[in-house]
Amino acid sequence: MPAPAATPATAGRPPAVRALTGLLVATAVATAAADLLNWGYAREQGFGLAVRSGWALLRCLGFLILIWHVRRGRAGARPFGLILSVTTVFAVARLIVPRTGAPTWPGVVGFALVAALCTTVVWLLYRSPQVQAFLVRNPARLVVDRRGISWRQVAPRRPPLAAWLLTSRVAAFTYSPLMLVPCLVAVGTIIDGRLAAVPAVVLWFAAGIAASYAVLLATFFALRGRRWARGLLVVVTLLVLLIDLPLCWLLLGVDGLVRDGGPLVAAACVALYALWRADRADPVVPASHPTAVPSGR
Asked: What is the DSSP string of 165-228?
């Protein structure tokens, strides 16, 4: 009886994949170091900076999750790495820029290092043939058949879909956290005595929660070939921007609009661009994983 073929998780990892894993560890460490350096050198260490710093530190956990996916050869590592890298650059950038004056030199150095590492991560994920050939494994699931019950990788059941459509889903799922972070920052204005902001903050929080359910609904049907769901995702994206950006400006000022609105605009641009490419992309990938990857074309 022939031996079963090795999967990406069991076969030897190619040099590019091992380099990517080490690079992700370095990126997580650099992100945490840049955050801590900025906190130490910041001129104002208020409630807003604490919230944004905590959100930046959570991205270290995101890189650890990404390492787990890469080591197991999961196809979803590519779009996850793309969105995580892009939003990490924005998260660190908004920390180093003070309300007035120029940023401190440690913050600038930390941002430059994180930006270079994130750029290299994206380049490896999308331009390295070894990485692309390795990240092809489908997620395992519980299977009941004649041999009994087992937990193993199975072939996708749904028809293949354009990979850019799946990437759009990953980007859209960042809408809710990117809205809730500035909403929590705005809570600081209430603590400072601005009670008139309470209704706006409550509305902001409710909109952030509703955005997650709306994205889930739209992407669920979009992945199943419903054309109307793509239009719904466009409408959700525009509504998120129309709600979040004015609230950033009204409650947090121009500073908050740039710091907190910028990352959301970037995520929305990725989602809309991916939807646009989905109608034109020739390559398809299995739709068994919600975060399958776009081609490098």
From this structure: HHHHHHHHTTHHHHHHHHHHHHHHHHHTT-GGGHHHHHHHHHHHHHHHHHHHHHHHHHTTT-HH
* Main-chain phi, psi angles of 284, to 5 degrees: -130, 155
**Which burial class, exposed, middle or buried, applies to 84 when counting CB atoms under 10 A from its CB (0-12, 13-18, 19+)?**
buried
Q: Please report how the helices 15-41 and 77-96 are oriented relative to each other, as an axis angle in degrees rounded to 10.
A: 20
pLDDT at 155: 55
Which range has the worst mean pLDDT, 56-70, 155-169, 234-248, 280-294? 280-294
User: Residue 290 and residue 297: Cα distance in Å, rounded?
Assistant: 20
Query: In the chain, helix, strand, coil percent, each to 5?
Result: 70, 5, 25
Measure the CA–CA gap between 11 and 96, rounded to whole angstroms.
42
Report d(CA 286, CA 141) in Å as an integer: 15
Q: Report the candidate in 265, 270, 273 with the shortest Cα–Cα distance to residue 240.
A: 265
CA gap 11, 163 in Å, rounded? 25
* 168-214: pLDDT as tens digits: 888 899 999 889 988 988 887 777 667 777 888 899 999 999 999 99
Please check whether residue 192 is in contact with residue 48, taking contact to mean a CB–CB distance below 8 angstroms. no
DSSP secondary structure code for residue 10 in this structure: T
Stated pTM of the model: 0.72
